[in-house]
Amino acid sequence: MNLIEYPDRDLLMLALADKIAGQLGEFLRRDGKASLCVPGGTTPGPIFDALSAVDLDWTNVAVFLNDERWVPEDSPRSNTRLLRERLLRDKAAVAQLVPLYDPAPRPEDRLPGLSEGLAAHLPISVLLLGMGADMHTASLFPGADLLEQALAPDAPVLMALRAEAAGEPRITLTAPVLKAAMHIHILITGAEKRTAIERAAGLSESEAPIRTVLDQATIHWAE
Ligand SMILES: O=C(O)[C@H](O)[C@@H](O)[C@H](O)[C@H](O)COP(=O)(O)O
């Protein structure tokens, strides 16, 4: 397991933001464009703050979430709202947001359109993932209704999943899309997640969905 341990969370967030910006810069110089895929949840806010202040050719960066909770954008549970408030501002305000939400009663109603929009920006240049203590990543939750299909090599780019631990229905990038990313970083903090990720290494992908990217990823951890 490739794990970097940082002295504290502030240093982790700054160092990882710097690493991500450097990798995006390489894609921009080489291809004239780049894509950045990021988690929602409670952990990545400080990285978003740091990234939004970086001088990059943000107009040519497509930004999208790993997954979204099927709630309106004004909900405090909306990951899109977090992105808008913390990442897509300052220098990064001109980045191109690729949506994972479009108002409709069920995520299935919007899958075709959202998938088409996303497919144009694959493969992902830089993928940042979070992880829950139950070893889910994106919205690939252990025990989710369609988990096996979402882990399969031939899964579509986006799927709608439901899981008890997830709360509301979710829309998520699937395992093959995550695995195909050029650079993969996992951001975790605290003792519980450290124990969980070490445990995941010995489990199957359905028991520990984070396993799907574990061999390719760099894990960034601070207490
Ligand atoms: O919508 C979400 O919840 C995320 O994208 C999810 O995969 C998240 O990264 C983990 O659940 C960790 O969440 P925390 O950072 O809040 O612990």
State the order of secondary-structure elements, H for helix, E for strand. EHEHEEHEHEHEEHEHHE
What's the CATH topology name?
Rossmann fold
Task: Please give the CATH class.
Answer: Alpha Beta
- Within the largest sheet, what's the order of strands? 1-10-9-6-2-3-5
Percentage beta strand: 15-25%
Radius of gyration, in Å, reads 16 Å
Characterization of the model:
Its EC number is 3.1.1.31. Pathway: Carbohydrate degradation; pentose phosphate pathway; D-ribulose 5-phosphate from D-glucose 6-phosphate (oxidative stage): step 2/3. Belongs to the glucosamine/galactosamine-6-phosphate isomerase family. 6-phosphogluconolactonase subfamily. The protein is of the alpha/beta class and 223 residues long. The chain has 8 helices and 10 strands. The strands form 2 sheets. Strands 1-10-9-6-2-3-5 form a 7-stranded parallel sheet, sandwiched between helices. A 3-stranded antiparallel sheet has the order 4-8-7. Helix 2 (45-52) links the parallel strand 2 and strand 3 (61-65). The longest helix is centred in the N-terminal third of the chain and has 23 residues, at 9-31. The mean pLDDT is 98.
